[in-house]
């Protein structure tokens, strides 16, 4: 195996990936109860407090507490699934019925009482047929059988197909039952959750009070680390101290971390929760709550742990682009979205042994450790966790794969538009930062740290606004460049199942307005890419003379590529240099050294621009006009993965938008379950996902290996295959890079 890997690495030099590119260094081997609203906010302590100060009410309050605890105990032993047949049509989510399947058998009168405790009722008899696929899927999972009957509002128990039970079935029997779910759909960023029904999940003897909506159970604003303020600023994350904690209110999103940009306050109507240095909180979205039942591991759901992007300087896990309602209901997974410290607060390194950097990584690892401890109480399987992220979040996934501190915390990684990670050295970040910080704190070592910890957070944020922070190589969290570690093989990284995806024209939106679509001078366009780091001066000087990027309508077959405009050529060059070439190199090195148990790589040939991230309105096409040329831009895969178009009032352009989004969500869910994005046919049949069945008819997403370096070309209705793109261009860009 080692000899074979070495031979594979030697072969990489022939396609432009040299040993210097992959230098090496160090080796390292629920309580599912929705009570009345006036009880929802009362902790046991607050009830006792009121009893103590209202003696005349003590008996009444004691009875009320006993009643509440009785109802909680009744529901606590009942695993509950939220049923919603998500057909992908996001404009109709609020019109399709939703229901609650309580798995613990009960007599009809008990079932009616428990539904009433949810402020619901048994499912109307006329609506049972709409959940046929949901029941069929539960049978596929093994939680229901052919012999299972269900209590609904029908006069007799019903079979899983919705027909009445045989006449000889006792009307006093104990069966699982289905309640209505009248909770509203979350369809606005500024949703008012005060009227949403509450429910509890219990994990490690802590009650987490969350919310039930039309698509999912959600628990938001959960602390996973101690607040990184005061003397914890510029320190690695400390685990959440749950000592003496018995209750967590998880009904309100937490503030985003301090930043500039789209999520600095709510000026873009994206962040009604504000910003704070105390920001280490996460959100859990789940289709299933086990209650107090010791559910077998094979009935727990795979966990997808999302790391948001934003150039290491902005973003939040509470961005409702990443709302988990659609993806949990479609793919039957638990979604965790998390905050981590950004910009100077997460990435400052002064190369002095006191402020080493990579606090962001310690935050993500602290959140992943929280998942290991608590996610079982939310129906998630702590032994089947996949990290996934896009842009800087995808790069963070690559760094977590390379970090010894993250060992054993996840089993898979999905990197969307991540290149091969972004990193720098501690000394380079220190050189950038020290001129901005020395006017405030001119000390060194521990004295400088103490000074920086005393400064108002706004001073630090404003002083560092012009610095581009990145992860750094450091001996604790990131011992070497990620690709250098991958080049040494599986023993040097967290060897997990890996999947990566790209958009064809990433830099059309990434470069914002650096380039203008009507530019006519190629060299001017190239020069404008230099200040943002999209290419360097040497590359800009050599690209036109190389003849590999030509502005022409003719077709060339000698390694040159023809573009119809200066703008198109320039966007493609920036995309190649920053996304395609690094991503391809990472995949090829990983395949050559057999660093991962499996790898799947793909291009999205379809995109849908974020509503606020399309600077020239060229990253989408108009409703009903699919033949209009458009760019598949950076972030144009996010609506497709999370299905959250409806939160931002985005229209269905053509029916294929629905079918493609469904296929993408099915593939991401399949990878989370099994490490393979090829969705099992039996699963699709059980769920009634016919359009994805058609998507996979005669096609499979190939595994990426040293002997078969093939990418999936994802499109609807017909996906295809492609080779690693633009290798000739990548070789040349690497050869002239400064």
From TrEMBL:
Gene3D superfamilies: alpha/beta hydrolase. The keyword Hydrolase applies. Keywords: Hydrolase. GO terms for molecular function: hydrolase activity. InterPro entries: AB_hydrolase_fold, CarbesteraseB, Carboxylesterase_B_AS, Carboxylesterase_B_CS, Type-B_Carboxylest/Lipase. Residues 218-695 form the Carboxylesterase type B domain. The keyword Glycoprotein does not apply. It holds the Pfam family COesterase. Belongs to the type-B carboxylesterase/lipase family. This is Liver carboxylesterase 4. The lineage of its organism: Eukaryota, Fungi, Dikarya, Ascomycota, Pezizomycotina.
């Amino acid at each position: 195996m080692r000899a074979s890997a070495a031979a594979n690495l030697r072969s990489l030099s022939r396609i432009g990936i040299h040993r210097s590119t992959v230098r090496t260094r160090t080796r390292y081997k629920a309580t599912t109860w929705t009570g009345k609203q006036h009880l929802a906010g009362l902790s046991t302590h607050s009830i006792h407090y009121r009893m103590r100060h209202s003696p005349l009410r003590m008996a009444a309050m004691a009875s009320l507490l006993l009643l509440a605890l009785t109802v909680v105990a009744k529901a606590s032993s009942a695993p509950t699934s939220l049923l919603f047949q998500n057909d992908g049509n996001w404009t109709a989510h609020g019109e399709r019925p939703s229901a609650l399947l309580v798995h613990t058998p009960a007599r009809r009168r008990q079932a009616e009482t428990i539904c009433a405790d949810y402020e619901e009722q048994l499912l109307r008899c006329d609506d049972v047929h709409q959940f046929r696929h949901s029941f069929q899927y539960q049978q596929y999972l093994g939680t229901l059988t052919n012999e299972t009957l269900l209590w609904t509002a029908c006069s007799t128990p019903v079979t899983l197909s919705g027909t009445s039970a045989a006449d000889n079935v006792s009307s006093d029997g104990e069966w699982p039952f289905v309640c209505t779910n009248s909770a509203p759909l979350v369809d606005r960023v500024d949703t008012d959750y005060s009227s949403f029904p509450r429910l509890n999940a219990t994990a490690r003897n802590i009650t987490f009070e969350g919310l039930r909506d039309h698509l999912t159970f959600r628990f938001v604003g959960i602390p996973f680390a101690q607040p990184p303020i005061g003397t914890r600023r510029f320190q690695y994350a400390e685990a959440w101290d749950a000592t003496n904690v018995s209750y967590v209110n998880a009904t309100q999103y937490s503030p985003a971390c301090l930043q500039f940009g789209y999520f600095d306050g709510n000026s873009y109507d994206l962040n009604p929760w504000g910003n704070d240095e105390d920001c280490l909180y996460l959100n859990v979205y789940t289709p299933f709550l086990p209650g107090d039942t010791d559910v077998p591991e094979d009935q727990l759901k795979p966990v997808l742990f999302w790391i948001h992007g934003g150039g290491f300087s902005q973003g939040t896990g509470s961005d409702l682009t990443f709302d988990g309602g659609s993806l949990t209901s479609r793919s039957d997974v638990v979604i965790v979205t998390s905050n981590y410290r950004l910009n100077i607060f997460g990435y400052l390194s002064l190369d002095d042994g006191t402020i080493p950097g990579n606090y962001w990584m310690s935050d993500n690892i602290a959140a992943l450790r929280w998942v290991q401890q608590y996610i079982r109480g939310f129906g998630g399987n702590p032994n089947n966790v996949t990290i996934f992220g896009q842009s800087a979040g995808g790069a963070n996934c690559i760094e977590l794969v390379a970090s010894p501190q993250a060992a054993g915390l996840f089993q898979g990684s999905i990197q969307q538009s991540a290149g091969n990670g972004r990193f720098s050295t501690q000394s380079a970040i220190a050189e950038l930062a020290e001129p901005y910080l020395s006017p405030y704190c001119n000390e060194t070592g521990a004295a400088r740290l103490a000074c920086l910890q005393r400064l108002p957070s706004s001073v630090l944020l404003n002083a560092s606004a012009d610095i581009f922070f990145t992860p750094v190589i450091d001996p604790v969290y990131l011992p070497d460049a990620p690709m250098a570690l991958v080049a040494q093989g599986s023993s040097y990284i967290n060897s997990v199942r890996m999947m990566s995806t790209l958009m064809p024209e990433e830099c059309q939106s990434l470069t914002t307005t650096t380039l203008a679509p009507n530019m006519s001078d190629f060299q001017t366009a190239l020069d404008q890419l230099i200040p943002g780091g999209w290419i360097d001066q040497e590359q800009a000087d050599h690209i036109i003379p190389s003849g590999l990027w030509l502005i022409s309508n003719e077709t060339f077959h000698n390694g040159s590529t023809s573009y119809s405009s200066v703008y198109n050529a320039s966007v493609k060059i920036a995309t190649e240099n920053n996304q395609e070439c690094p991503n391809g190199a990472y995949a090829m090195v990983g395949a050559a050294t057999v660093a991962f148990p499996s790898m799947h790589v793909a291009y999205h040939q379809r995109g849908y621009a974020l509503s606020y991230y399309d600077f020239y309105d060229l990253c989408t096409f108009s409703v009903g006009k699919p033949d209009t040329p458009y760019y598949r831009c950076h972030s144009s895969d996010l609506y497709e993965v999370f299905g959250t178009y409806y939160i931002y009032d985005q229209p269905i352009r053509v029916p294929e938008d629905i079918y493609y989004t469904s296929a993408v969500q099915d593939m991401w869910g399949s990878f989370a379950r099994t490490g393979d994005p090829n969705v099992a046919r039996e699963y699709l049949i059980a769920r009634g996902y016919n359009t994805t069945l058609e998507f996979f008819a005669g096609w499979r997403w190939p595994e990426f290996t040293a002997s078969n370096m093939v990418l999936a070309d994802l499109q609807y209705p017909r996906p295809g295959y492609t080779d690693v793109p633009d290798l000739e261009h990548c070789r040349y860009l690497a050869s002239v890079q400064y």
